[in-house]
Design brief:
The complex is a heterodimer of chains A (289) and B (271). With 289 residues, chain A is of the alpha/beta class. Chain A is built from eleven helices and ten strands. Chain A starts with 18 loop residues before the first helix and ends in a 5-residue tail after the last helix. Chain B is mainly alpha-helical and 271 residues long. Chain B starts with a helix and ends in a 5-residue tail after the last helix. In chain B, helix 4 packs across helix 6 and helix 6 crosses helix 8. The chains are: A alpha/beta (289), B mainly alpha (271). Chains A and B meet through helix 3, strand 6, helix 4 and helix 7 of A and helix 7 and helix 8 of B.
Amino acid sequence: MNIPFLGKKIKWYMQDLNETELKKGFFRPYQKFCTNESRRSNMIVENLNVTIQHNHILKDVSTEIPDRKITCIIGPSGCGKSTLLKSLNRLLDNNEDVKISGKVLVDGEELYAPGVEITHIRRKMGLLSQRPCPLPMSIYDNIAYGCRIHGLRNRKKLNMVVRHYLQAVGLWEEVKDRLHSPAGRMSIGQQQRLCLARGLAVEPQFILADEATSALDPISSKTIEDLFLKLKEEYAIVLVTHTLRQALRIADYVIFMYMGEIVEAGPAEQIFKNPQKELTQKYLSGVFS
Amino acid sequence: MKAVMWITTLLVFLFVGSILYTIVRNGWNAMSWDMISSLPGGGFYIGKEGGLLNAIVGSLYIVGASTVLGLVVSIPVVFYLNVYLKKNSKRGAFARLAYDVLFGIPSIVYGAFAFTIMIYLGLKTSLGGGIIVITLLIIPIFIRSMDEIARELPQDILNASYSLGATRYETIKVVVRQIAPGIATATLLSVGRAIGDAAAVLFTAGYTDNIPVSLGQPAATLPLAVFFQLSSPIPAVQERAYAAALILTFIVLILSILGRIITNRFSRNKI
């Protein structure tokens, strides 16, 4: 019997975890299948159209997200950057009056095909929202939440996973004495790093960040940016940003959007130094923003 | 303007004080260990010895069982309204209207309604009937007060859970954690209403001098103990009505304090 709302879960990963395996890898020690050579995550967007309450937000967007690079989506406010990011994760489904056509292919799987099981695709994408949004639980449970959902119940292994990912985002030293205190009591910068660790703990391939540093103080943003630079060795990172400087600092690949369309996309060097379109030039030189 | 605020606040304190003063002054003489630890003896209602244990236990039975039943019914409803339904769905609006109407129906109407059905089914007044009617009475309170908090549930929290690959069903854990203070407050309100309601149990639970041992037997309740004894012409029995009121107030007070403590504990994780 298929109970629809219980959902199906793929539980192949994180099953057999031991200390030696843990020491082998740095960021994703548990994903046996995905060695650096064989894994190639890819995401292709084809003719994506999104209409929200009769506003045509995204118009025929087609692009490709390169693996192990930081892709920055830039553009003026209201150009559909965040909508594009959310439609990559199918988070728009929960909103009203949303019509979506087109394709998003993640590792060959069509996201918007009827009957597709979304949860295991969402697991492949860690989301970092604008304001940090810890779950209403302790610091420990925040990280363990995702792992528990995906079938990791063993207390010892959970302890290892929690410690590992807190170390990965540099939080371990700061919070190791208060793992069981509420996550809401941490500073904003710490919360954002916790959210990142929480996303990493379910072993995604992509990291989707929606202006992840705009609510943070300069030092915390710097920490997050540094983490992104480190993480790009293993993950494909898509970053929506308002600040051109940030894109300049960390982007490998840039998508410039205007009024719901992709105006120009390409390697960061090319876009910043030698933009092809007039609109891009104007935006980069600050004629409008 | 400040004077008005000050006076009205003072008035509220005066109300509380005078109510407490009245029931303590009138009921203190009748209060004894016997009153809370023994069943009514023969002739209790003409002033002879005995106690109110039957009513205390009956009230606690009804409140305990209906609170549990009420939570079991209303948590899924709140979850459905706030996680499964979209924000402006017609079904949600209709459901909320229905609970508002239920919220406003006086308890005597619940009692009369249940009474009609029980006659139709050929049932006698019983503990089970009382529990069911009190459950019906407090479900709207539960749902409304939890819904108020759950509606402010940030979409970000839900999205955070979904993006980790959680289904909506698994997200219930997050929702429950976030609205836990709301659940505690709702329980507190409902318990207060349930234990103090006389009209709904008048026709459904009945009254008895014994402690019920099965759901089919009638059960006594404290509000009815107040009601029946206060209408007696004998001054000693009237004093016992105030003693019953004192016990009732005391139980509500203890439950409120417990509720506060539990609420504080639950809300420590709230974002």
